[in-house]
Amino acid sequence: MNRIMTTLVLALFGTAATADYTMVVPQRVGGGTSQWTTIVAGELEKHLGEKIIIDHHPGARDIPGFNKWHNEMQDDDKTIMVSHGGNGVSFLIEKVEYNYNDYRPIGAMNLDIIIAKRKETFVQTDKIIFSAGSGQTPEGLAIFMMQCGPLMDPDCFKDEVSWVKGMRGGERRLAFKRGELNATRENPASYKKHVEPDPNSELWFTHGISGPNGTRLDDPEYPGYRFEDVYEARWGVPPSGPTYDAYVLVRAFRDGLQKALWVSKDNPNADKIIAAMNSMLADPASVKAIQKKAGKYPWVVGEEAEAHVANILGLVQEKPLKDLVEISDSMLGLASVYKPELIK
């Protein structure tokens, strides 16, 4: 009904042919997803042949913007939702109104998160001081495992990790630069801009990029620093156990859906946008511009994007999901709920 009413209004007032496309970003201007969207929208509109407006809807844990698109905006044929990693984490363990199963994924960049530390920090002996934030559950679990080893005693997290809440992105970056935090994380575009130029920082580990059936491949920009490899180099054994299984699950949702584009399932412009994306990715100038800011990461578009998302949604199993909820709630202090309806 909403789509019918929208079509009637556009027909009556004659704006359907002239309306710009809109990309909805569920966070404030300057955030990691905002920066990525600015880069991609600037290149995509060259191949779409129409202007793309970026519409920011910030809110607590970046949930309200996605909820708003779900409830009020998805029936607009020229509105595209840009989801990010925090939305993937929240979908797993929080009460949200959006549902990935209800939409058509038209494209995604298969990205990573880069974790850096201060050069003077010795992970074997120093307590890690890290700023918590939206979508950072995988970092919490990874740092816990990295610091506490195979025994993974929950009390060790309190001793080895200071999980600082309440910092925004700009505050986190400044605190890391000053040494008030001794570890931080960024998506590739933000890492290249804010962390890599800092002479006092060094790469600690990455999560890698999504591979088939929940596997994780080496980061093409930062090979040799995949979490599993760095962990095994320190502890002598590969990571395993309930915490690791929960980490694998939440990492897949956070990173695999970190920068994904969505429209309603019956959006008549979907194929046109997909064609423009394929044209953009076949254009060396556009690819160079995107890679300069966001890194040399692979894309999935159209049917590949749908298969990519289906693979991620199919990873949910009862025990890892229950363990993730318990760990997030008790250790990270993130009010979490178990959602059995997510299990395929």
Oligomer kind: single chain
CATH topology of the largest domain: D-Maltodextrin-Binding Protein, domain 2
Number of strands: 13
Q: From the helix content, strand content and strand pairing, which structural class follows?
A: alpha/beta
Q: Secondary-structure element sequence?
A: HEHEHEHEEEHHEHEHEEEHHEHHEHH
CATH-level-2 architecture of the largest domain: 3-Layer(aba) Sandwich
Strand content: 15-25%
End-to-end distance: 30 Å
- What is the mean predicted local confidence, pLDDT? 91
Main sheet: which strands, in order across?
2-1-3-12-4-13
Which CATH C-level class of the largest domain is it?
A: Alpha Beta
* Biggest sheet features: 6 strands, mixed
Shape field: globular
Number of helices: 14
In helices, the fraction of residues equals 40-55%
Q: How many domains would you count in the coordinates?
A: 2
Radius of gyration: 20 Å
* CATH homology superfamily name of the largest domain: Bordetella uptake gene, domain 1
Which spans of ≥5 residues are poorly predicted at pLDDT below 50? 3-17
Q: Overview of this structure, please?
A:
- The chain is α/β, with parallel strands linked by helices.
- It has two domains: 164 residues, D-Maltodextrin-Binding Protein, domain 2, CATH 3.40.190; 158 residues, D-Maltodextrin-Binding Protein, domain 2, CATH 3.40.190.
- Helix content is 45%, strand content 17%.
- The protein has 14 helices and 13 strands.
- The strands form four sheets. Strands 2-1-3-12-4-13 form a six-stranded mixed β-sheet, with helices on both faces.
- α4 packs across α10 and α10 packs across α14.
- The chain starts with a helix and ends in a 14-residue tail after the last helix.
